[in-house]
Amino acid sequence: MSDKLLDKAQLESLTYAQIRIKDFTLDDNLPVYSPVDGSIRKPPGFDLGALDALPLEILQELLSFLDLRTLVDFLRVNRRALQVVESIPQYEAITTHARDALRAILSIETGQWISCNTLYEKLCTAECEECGDFAGYLYILTCKRVCFLCLSENRKYLPLLRSHADRKFGLPSQILRTLPCMKSVPGRYSPGLKKCHNRLVLVDYDSAYHEGVMLYGSASAMEKHVSNVSAQKLEEFNKRVTEEKARGSHALLRRPKTSDAFDRKSENPLRFMAIVRIPWLNKSSRELDWGKGRNNLQTFDQLMFDGVSRRVAHYTTPNIQLLQASADPDDASEFRILVDDKSIKYITIDAGVYEVDDMCFGPSLVSILPSLPSGKWNTGYITRHPTDGSPYFASVAEVKFPGIKNPWCEVQIDYLELRMGEKLRSNVYEATHPQFDSTIVVKFARFDWEIPQLDAETSAYQWIEGHGIGPKFLGHVSEDGRVIGFIMEKISDCRHATPEDLSICQAALSRLHNLGIKHGDTNKHNFLIHDGKAILIDFDCSTQNNDAGILDEEFRGLEGQLCDGSGRGGVVMLENDAA
Ligand SMILES: [Zn+2]
Questions:
Q1: Ligand 1 centre and the CA of 142: distance in Å?
Q2: How would you classify residue 130: left for phi > 0, otherwise alpha for psi between -120 and 50, otherwise beta?
């Protein structure tokens, strides 16, 4: 073994993972800096007038208190001014070690809120101002050092559009104009590389919040005011809708925005538009540290890596399976999905966000969906983001969906325990379940608007129970505790009725009428012919009815129904159904 000691760089290269993670912060979106060779710069031709009467140290000290916008304006006065500014120790440290931070501040025009001294002090501070961990980033809307986790999670680091700040904190424009604000640089932001084409004017969240509290006297008074305003806006909107309807107009009115845009945290590009990476300058040792090799604080790379692995854990692509779809090219489309084989979620996608073909093919839908928000929710709404136009979850919620009101049978099977087989209709499948020896048929409400239909049919099966009129009812199907459908026996070796089956179909219908029930939809596909007998199905239009005239009318109409060649009631999938 060699006793030769490794030098610092060799040691670091062996002990720290050499990862260079692009977070797509503001500095990743600045034009590449190309230094101009300063060696041939001419000596100053003019002086600074009265200012030159001051000793240089005093002048440097005074200038270091200037805000960066004014300081940069000053250094452009003449070559002497530039020479003096460049001699300020704080400014020199900034241009040497944090040039991108300075460039970024000037690019988003926040220089007027940040002094040269403040930026220097932040360069010489290692810890996150929120949590005290080592922080490798600077939030340059107000110049705060912040770690990755805080910048992506803490609400203070989410710059707001002025309109959003007004909606959230009830700020009039004369106050909004005074808040620290920035103009974003178009580019790609956040680890998710969200493209933002426009220059957005964004204000500092924390400043807006405090102005709101000052204006209304307290946080609760502010919140009350804001909720009153949005309730009023909503009321005005509803009134206008009613008026438009009364006039017979079909004009689509824009619903006022009353809730927050969904914050995608580490995937929210707004959170990265005022963020630059910055090293730590140790004032006493004058050493520069990007976070490597310190004992008591986590290293920069470790933190970066933790941030990334945490994000990966957070956003690990879940196993998403498209169960059912009801897609419409001109209106919102609805999807029922299964996440990680254990939770069923309902997603509504706004019209025009995706192509219908892309949405209805399971693997394709899964690949184009935005990351599923974490937390407990069962219904989500996807639309285009107002700032960058990309699809995003505008809202998610945990909703208590309606269920079938009258679960009369003792047997109840969880939907997730069923193994689905062939699809017979959009909401009818063959399936297997350990509790049953043979294939069963499952009929259920794919979406909550199908519940009333299933509710009616479930009751009808109770009325005919034990009379051999329909397939045997085997039990209810539940999802997350609510009953959404039922299972019945599979009638094998059967076919739909033809005009030749009139007498056996009449016999089956008579048995139903004898119970005082009108079927409601006696088309030929609702009679299954098996073993010389007709079995009735599809009771969702059935009603209890003792009016002999009405029942007789249905009976007499049967012959015509069996001769109907229109295909009505057949296994036709008119909707865009996906399995
Ligand atoms: Zn922090």
A1: 16
A2: alpha
